[in-house]
Amino acid sequence: MVAVCDPLDRFERKLDLEAHAADILEQVHQKASDTRSTYFSEALRSWGRNFAGRALFIEKDMQAAPETLERITNFLGIRPFPQQVRFKRYNSRGRRRSRLCSHPNLVQNLKGLFEPEYNLLEEILGAAASERLRARRTRCEVPDDFKEVARYLVSHRSCTCFWIPQISR
Question: Which pTM was predicted?
Fold first, then answer.
């Protein structure tokens, strides 16, 4: 399985983890100039070619959706999860990762930069592509709705989310 994410969300994560310039515009310019940070399309295209039929592409933000879980169990050839099982995501930070979202014009320009990757993700995911991806709504427009948990539950600093299956009784 390959979990893919919104290109701009991935870029923002790289901004947060790798660069700490005081000026957000300078920081974005530096990262956008580095093609390793901006163009993931070739890797996706290659994986699609080399693993056709043997890899399942899913959206990271849709991993807990019932239809995604059904696709996963069908792909793996296993029984469906029991109806009462819910996989929840928890945000360990409880805040935005960078200052990028406070610059809407910059966000729009970056969406244009990533348009080829957005199109490729739609092609790879097909009907399973979410409305959020098709509408190009990033974390800036759709803030995380994860439940916050204490930081001590996260064992690695760069981890921003984890999955805990919960069974309703």
Answer: 0.73
| HSE toward the beta carbon, residue 102, CA cutoff 13 A | 8
In the three-class reduction of DSSP (H, G, I as helix; E, B as strand; rest coil), residue 59 is classed as strand
17: left (phi over 0), alpha (psi -120 to 50) or beta: alpha
Within 13 Å, how many C-alpha atoms sit on residue 15's CB side?
A: 28
Nearest to 41 by CA among 95, 93, 90, 114: 114
Pick from 15, 63, 67: which is nearest to 38 by CA?
A: 15
For 34, the token pair is 């580095």
Q: Could you read off the pLDDT tens digit of each residue along the chain, which spans 169 residues?
A: 888 889 988 888 877 766 565 677 777 777 777 666 566 778 888 888 888 788 899 998 888 888 888 999 999 999 998 888 877 766 555 556 677 888 889 999 999 989 999 999 999 898 999 999 999 998 888 765 544 443 434 444 434 444 444 444 4
Is 12 in contact with 139 (CB distance < 8 Å)?
Answer: yes
3-state secondary structure of 159: coil
Please name which of 50, 35, 36 lies closest in space to residue 2, comparing C-alpha atoms: 50
| 15 CB burial (10 A radius; 0-12, 13-18, 19+) | buried
